[in-house]
């Protein structure tokens, strides 16, 4: 898929609307359109990367930035004490449906384990 056809790239440039909570030069965070928990937020790189499987050594800092952004948003959403989960689905067996790397931040209820 080219970046032109990618849903999350369209959110990055503003062609598709989203409930954006945070953005900077490298990452964007917005609420999931089909939340699986009371708080369900996606953190994505602005640059198009298909999945975690496409991440290279040069993306090391970016991946750390995505994780730290998730932590800060979790804190801002009041989840630090109750806890939360971060998930990156990869590929078919991982259940990835949007092929632009994204980290799910889920919280606001007790989450079951293992996932289905
Ligand atoms: P995954 O299954 O890990 O690829 O997750 C893709 C996520 O993107 C799902 O949780 C969807 O609900 C979410 N999603 C799909 N389209 C949109 C959209 N337009 N705005 C916000 N979230 C979306
Ligand atoms: Zn994309």
Care to describe what's here?
The chain is of the alpha+beta class and 116 residues long. The protein has a single domain, classed as 2-Layer Sandwich (HIT family, subunit A). It is built from three helices and five strands. Strands 1-2-3-5-4 form a five-stranded antiparallel beta sheet, with helices on one face. Strand 1 and strand 2 form a beta hairpin. The longest helix has 17 residues. The chain starts with 6 loop residues before the first helix and ends in a 9-residue tail after the last strand. The mean pLDDT is 97.
Task: Spell out the blueprint of helices and strands.
Elements: H1 7-13, E1 20-23, E2 27-31, E3 39-45, H2 60-76, E4 84-87, H3 91-94, E5 103-107
Antiparallel strand pairs: 1-2, 2-3, 3-5, 4-5
This protein binds adenosine monophosphate and zinc ion.
Adenosine monophosphate (AMP) binds at residues 7, 16, 18, 32-34, 42, 89, 95-98.
Strands, total number = 5
Q: Helical segment tally?
A: 3
Major sheet characteristics: 5 strands, antiparallel
Helix content: 10-25%
- Tell me the radius of gyration: 14 Å
Q: What is the C-level CATH assignment?
A: Alpha Beta
Query: Strands of the biggest beta sheet: in what spatial order?
Result: 1-2-3-5-4
Unreliable sequence segments: none
Summarize the structure.
The chain is α+β, with helices and mostly antiparallel strands and 116 residues long.
């Amino acid at each position: 898929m080219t970046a032109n056809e990618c849903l999350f790239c369209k959110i990055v440039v503003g062609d598709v609307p989203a409930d954006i909570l945070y953005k900077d030069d490298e990452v964007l965070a917005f609420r999931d359109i089909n939340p699986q928990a009371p708080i369900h937020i996606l953190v994505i790189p602005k640059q198009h990367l298909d999945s975690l499987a496409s991440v290279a050594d040069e993306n090391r800092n970016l991946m750390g930035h995505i994780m730290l952004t998730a932590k800060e948003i979790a804190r801002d959403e009041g989840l630090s004490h109750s806890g939360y989960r971060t998930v990156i689905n990869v590929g078919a067996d991982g259940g990835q449906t949007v092929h632009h790397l994204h980290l799910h931040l889920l919280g606001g209820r007790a989450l079951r384990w293992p996932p289905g």
